[in-house]
Amino acid sequence: MTRGLGGLFRGVQSLTSLPATRAGLGHPSACVSLRTMVALPSFLSFEPRDFSLPNSSWSSEMLRLYEQYSIQCEVETEGGENRGGQWQRLPSYNRSLKYATGGNYLSKIIQSKARLFTRNIRDPGAGFEYVVFANKEEKRCVCIFQAGHRLEGPPGHVHGGATATMIDTVTGSLAALLSGPVMTANLNINYRSAIPLGSTVLIETSLDSEEGRKKFISCKVTSTDGSKLHTEATALFLSINISHLLQGG
Ligand SMILES: CCCCCCCCCC(=O)SCCNC(=O)CCNC(=O)[C@H](O)C(C)(C)COP(=O)(O)OP(=O)(O)OC[C@H]1O[C@@H](n2cnc3c(N)ncnc32)[C@H](O)[C@@H]1OP(=O)(O)O
């Protein structure tokens, strides 16, 4: 299940050579080389909850689109091979650390109260409900996003910062899928029409070009039938070494 964004935290493996104290980790039990955590007791290595699966808050439109992309996804055969389908659903956890091998355990000791911004509202449907599908061959992603009532900006409509967060997340997911750990260096957004709270929208993103460590990505947010343009954006992501990040870089 973690295969989709597996590349995202390829760099976390380099984290395993850092003594935890250098990485700024305060917890006493973290004062060992993280390399020792590769062989985890099985009770600590269970799969984390995947927040991109349907829940009772999803609208019929959200479910319809989820089904539409799900049936175009690759499937794993009994022999372990991947067959058919151009798309893959990207899993979504409440901490990005959880994509790493042993990350579920690491997330309990590294700033254990930290939560991914888009997954920190527990009440289903109140905040960011979304699922991202990726087409790696075509270097693009589609996100189905349902904006909950806690994302209000102008009365009855989504806060521009919430829209920016989702654009950053979807463009960042594409950049990470294509090249491993990345950071947003630049994000330009044009807000064309407000998004009503509770509505479901599509966030479509694709790679424009790449240059060394740089990935230039564009994005648009539209109504699900494509008739209304809500937002347009471009983003620049730079590949990074995770150990640089953990050392405060
Ligand atoms: C888990 C599920 C998926 C979740 C996805 C969520 C995605 C969310 C991603 C984020 O929100 S990340 C958080 C917001 N971003 C930051 O906090 C980044 C802060 N900035 C940095 O850490 C550094 O500035 C950065 C890593 C982006 C770049 O520093 P580096 O030292 O690696 O690069 P450097 O400054 O040497 O620049 C390398 C090249 O990039 C260019 N560059 C850097 N920043 C730029 C910029 N802002 N605009 C344009 N070009 C830029 C720079 O000119 C240079 O070009 P050249 O190689 O052609 O000379």
TrEMBL record:
The keyword Flavoprotein does not apply. The keyword Ligase does not apply. It catalyses: (9Z)-octadecenoyl-CoA + H2O = (9Z)-octadecenoate + CoA + H(+); (5Z,8Z,11Z,14Z)-eicosatetraenoyl-CoA + H2O = (5Z,8Z,11Z,14Z)-eicosatetraenoate + CoA + H(+); hexadecanoyl-CoA + H2O = hexadecanoate + CoA + H(+); tetradecanoyl-CoA + H2O = tetradecanoate + CoA + H(+). Its main location: membrane. It is found in: Cell projection, Ruffle membrane; Cytoplasm; Mitochondrion inner membrane; Mitochondrion intermembrane space. InterPro entries: HotDog_dom_sf, THEM4/THEM5_acyl-CoA_thioest, Thioestr_dom. Transmembrane segments: none annotated. This is Acyl-coenzyme A thioesterase THEM4. It comes from Scophthalmus maximus.
